[in-house]
Amino acid sequence: MQLFVIQRILGLLLMLFSFTMLPPLLVSWFYAENTVLPFVSAFLVTFITGTVCWLPVRRHRSDLRIRDGFVVVVMFWTVLALFGALPFLLSAQPSISITDSVFESMSGLTTTGATVIAGLDALPRSILYYRQQLQWLGGMGIIVLAVAVLPMLGIGGMQLYRAETPGPMKDNKLTPRITETAKALWYIYLTLTIACGLAYWAAGMTGFDALAHAFSTVAIGGFSTHDLSMGYYNDQPLIEIVAIIFMLLSGVNFALHFLAWRSRSSKYYFADTEFKVYATILLLASLLTAAYLYWNATFDTVGEAILRGVFQTVSIGTTAGFTVAEYHTWPGFLPIMLLMMSFIGGCAGSTGGGMKVIRVVMLMKQGGREILRLVHPSAQIPVKVGGKALSDRVIEAVWGFFSLYVVCFCVMSLIMVATGLDFVTAFSAIAACMNNLGPGLGDVGLNYTSVNDVGKWVLCFAMLLGRLEIFTLLVLLTPAFWRK
Amino acid sequence: MKIIILGAGQVGSSVAANLASEANDITVVDVDRQLLLDLQDRLDIRTVYGQASYPDVLSRAGAEDADMILAVTNSDETNMIACQVAHSLFRTPTKVARIRSRHYLGFKKLFGNDAIPVDVMISPEQVIIDYVQRLIAHPGALQVLDFADGLVQLVAVKAYYGGPLVGQELRLLKDHMPNVESRVAAIFRKGTPIIPEGDTVIEADDEVFFIAARNDIRTVMGELRRLDRPNKRIIIAGGGNIGKGLAQALENDYNVKLIDHNPGRSKQISEELDKTIVLHADAADEELLLEENITSTDVFCAVTNDDEANILSCMLAKRLGARKVLALINRASYVDLVESGDIDIAVSPHQAMIGSLLAHVRRGDVAAVHSLRRGAAEAIEAVAHGDSRSSKVVGRSVEDIKLPPGANIGAIVRGTKVIMAHHDTVIEAEDHVILFLIDKRRVVEVEKLFQVGVTFL
C-alpha cells in the first residue's frame, strides 16, 4: 500500500472536485439566489482540504498498484460523497440533517436517484442544478473522466480503469492507449448529454429543466427538478418519448456507441449479444406492461397506457428511476416485475446499474449448460457469448458476483426490517439502492423521507456497493487485503 | 509430363504413387531424408532433399522445364512461397498448392498471377469433407461425385432385393421412370466390371454407377433399392481437421455429436462449433455410445487418423445399432477388406483427393476427374473444343465417336442444361462431356479424343 501516493491523488481529486461547486455559483448569481455563501464555503472547504492533503506529499510520484487502485476508487466515492454533501448541509434550503445530506449526495454520485427531499419545486435553482450535476459527474464516473486528465499528472491510469469501469469484460480496450479510450468514451457521454438537452428543449422543456434532466437522463440517474419527476410533463408526450430514447441509448455499452460512431454504421449494435438481449427484455416487458395496464383500465386511453407503460418499464429497466406515474401503486404483478427488472439493469460499460445484462446472460447460459450436462455427462459444453467461448474463470467470477449480490441483498434487507420498516419497503428500498435505481415500493415509492437514520446509512452503503460492483468495496473489508 | 511434388507426406507420396504409374516424370522434394529414401525404393521417381521453397532446391529438382509444380508440404506458407518462386524464377506453367487455412481461402483476390501465383488450390480436408457430406445427403449411396459444378452427379449404389428395377433389363429404366433422364454408366458384379447394354440385367448386390441430374438422384436410387429415410442424427468420431470441418458443415442441417478423446482438443472444438455437442470420451466406449443413443443414430462416421481405430469403432457402432457406419481408411488394402463386411462405406482420403489433382495432369481440357474403385476406374468431365474438322468429337453423334472399349459417354452438359447421352445425340463445341472409363489404362486414348488438332490453333 502506498499511502502517500493515495493521499496525493485524493488531494488532487478533491481540488478538482471543488471546482465543480463553481457552476452552481453561476446559477445562483444568475437567478439572484441566497445560496452564494454555502457554495463558496463548500468550495473553499473542499479546495483547502484537498490542498492540505496534496501539498506535503506532492513529490511522491509512482505508479499505482492494483491494491492502491481499489483504495482510491472506494475512498473517492466515499470522500467525494461526504464533501459533495456540504452545499446541502450549508444551504438554508433544504434544511436537512447530515445524514440526509450525505444520502442525497451519495444518491447523486452513484446515479441512484433516490431522494430524501420533498418539495423540490420550491428549492433554489442552484441547489437543484447542483443535484443534477452530481449525477452527471457520477454518471460516467469521475474517475474515467480523471483517467483522461490524470496521466498528464504522471499517474498510471490502467489500474484505475480496471477497477472502475463496470462489467465483466474489463480487458476489452477500444484504443491502444487508455487515455484515448477514456477520452473517446467521455466525448460520447458529452455528445449524448448535449443531444439529450437539445431534444428536451425542443420538446418543450424550459432551458434550465432541459439541461438538468439531460444531466440525470444520460447518467441514468433519475434526479428531477420536480417532485412529480417526469410526471410533471404528463401532458407533453414528446418529452416522455425523448426521455425513453435517451435512457435506452445511455443503457447501452458505451464501447458500442464508440465503435458505431467510429465506423459510421449500426452493425456493431446488432452483432452484440448483450445489446440484443437488453433490447429484447425491454421490448417484451414494455409490451407486457402496456397490455396489462390497458387490460386493467389503469389509464383512460390506449395511448396513455402504452406511453406510461413503456416509459416506466424503460426507466426502471435501465435503472434510471424517473417516474411518470405512481408505479408502486400499479395493479397486480407490475410493480414487483419492474423492480426485478432493475436487477438485470443496463449493459456493462453503460451508466446503468443493476447486475448488468451480460452477467445475467452468462448466468442463464451457465444454467442451460448444467441442464445439458445432465443429458450428456461427458460433453464439453462451453458458455458462449456472441460466438466466443468464455473462460471458466469469467463464469466463476460472475457466479461469485451473483452469490455475493444475493447475500448482500438479503442481509441488508433484514437490517432494514430490523430498523422498523415493513417488509415491502425494506426489500424494495435495498433493491432500488443496490441497483442504483431510485424509487422503491411501499413507503419509499416517491421519496425516502420516511426512512430512519440508521436505514439511510445502510442504504448509502447499498448504493456504494451497487455502484462499485460489490467486489471493489468488499475487498477492502477483508483482512487479507490489508496484510503487509 | 514433368511434375515436381513438394512434400512427401501422406498426400505427396500417394499422389506420387498415383502419377508415377501413369508414365509421368515425378520429382519429390522433402526435408526428411528417410521419407525420400522409402519413397524412392517403392516408386520409379527422383527425390531431392531440401527446403521446398528455396530457389536452388527447386532448380535442382528441375523446375526449369517442369510442366507442373505441386506444393503439398504441411505449411501453407511454404507452399505459397514455393509457387511464387516457381512463377518468378522458373515460369512454371501450372502451379498447384495445398492451402488448408480458411483464413487464406476466404480471399479470392489473393491468388492470381499478379498476386500469389497459385493456379489451383487444393485443400484435402475440404475435399474429404465435401465427399462425406454428399454421402450423408444421399443415404444409401456408396459414392456421390459432382460434375459441372454439381449439376450432374455420378452415384454408386448397391442394388438390393426389393428395388423395382432389380432383376430387370436396363432398357426398362425408361418405362419405370418416364420423367427422369438417367443412364447407368457401369455395373460391377463381384468386383468385375460389366459394360451395361440394353439387355443387361441388374442383379442384387451389384454395384451400379448411374448418372443423373442432381434432383433426380433420389428417384433413381429408389428403383435400385428400398429408399433409406433421410439422415438426421450423426455421430462423428475424431476431432481432427476433418472431424471438425465435417461437424461444421453438417451441424446446421443435422443433429451432430462429435467424440474426441483429447481433453484439450475437445474443449477447443467445442468452442469453435455452434450446435454440435462435443463429447470428451473414447469413441470405442460401449457405455458412452449407448448413453448417446447409438441405437437411433443414422450415420456413425469414424474419421480419426488411425485406420484400425476407425474400423473397430465403426464395427462396434454397427453392432450396437447404428444404421450406417462410415470409416476413413488410408490403407488401400483395408478398404477392400472391410467394405464387404460390417462397414457400409469406406472412404479413402487419397482417392477422394487425387481426382482434384488428376484434372490438371490430364491432357486436353478436362474439368473434373474422379477416381473410382480404388483408382481402377475413372470418371472424366472433358470439354469439347473446335469444330467437326479439327476435333474428333464435335459435330459427331455419340455412336460415331471412336471410344476405347470399356468407355462410354454418360451425359452432356450444355450451358446449364443437362442432356443424357443417347446414341444419336450430337456433341457441340464447348459441351462438357461426362465419360466413364472402366479401365483407367485407356485414359490416354480418351485424352487424345478431346485434344484439338493443330489446325484449330
Structural class of chain B: alpha/beta
Q: Identify the overall geometry of chain A.
A: globular
**Overall spatial form of chain B:** globular
CATH class of the largest domain in chain B: Alpha Beta
- Secondary structure tally: strands of chain A: 3
Keywords:
heterodimer; A: 484 residues; mainly alpha; two-stranded antiparallel sheet; 3 strands; globular; B: 457 residues; alpha/beta; Rossmann fold; 4 domains; 22 strands
Helix and strand arrangement:
The complex is a heterodimer of chains A (484) and B (457).
Chain A (H helix, E strand, L loop, with lengths): L2 H16 L3 H9 L5 H19 L11 H19 L1 H5 L7 H12 L15 H16 L1 H8 L8 H7 L13 H26 L3 H12 L18 H14 L3 H10 L3 H5 L1 H23 L6 H16 L16 H11 L12 H19 L3 E2 L3 E2 L2 E2 L2 H27 L4 H12 L18 H15 L3 H4 L4 H4 L2
Chain B lengths: L1 E5 L3 H11 L4 E6 L2 H10 L3 E4 L5 H6 L7 E4 L4 H15 L3 E5 L3 H4 L14 E3 L1 H14 L3 E7 L4 E7 L14 H4 L5 E8 L2 E3 L12 E7 L3 H8 L8 E5 L3 H10 L4 E6 L2 H10 L4 E4 L5 H6 L7 E4 L4 H14 L3 E5 L3 H8 L5 E3 L1 H13 L4 E7 L4 E7 L23 E8 L2 E4 L11 E6 L5 H8 L7
Parallel strand pairs in B: 1-2, 1-4, 2-3, 4-5, 5-6, 12-13, 12-15, 13-14, 15-16, 16-17
Antiparallel strand pairs in B: 7-8, 8-11, 9-10, 9-11, 18-19, 19-22, 20-21, 20-22
Helix pairs in contact in B: 1-14, 6-9, 6-14
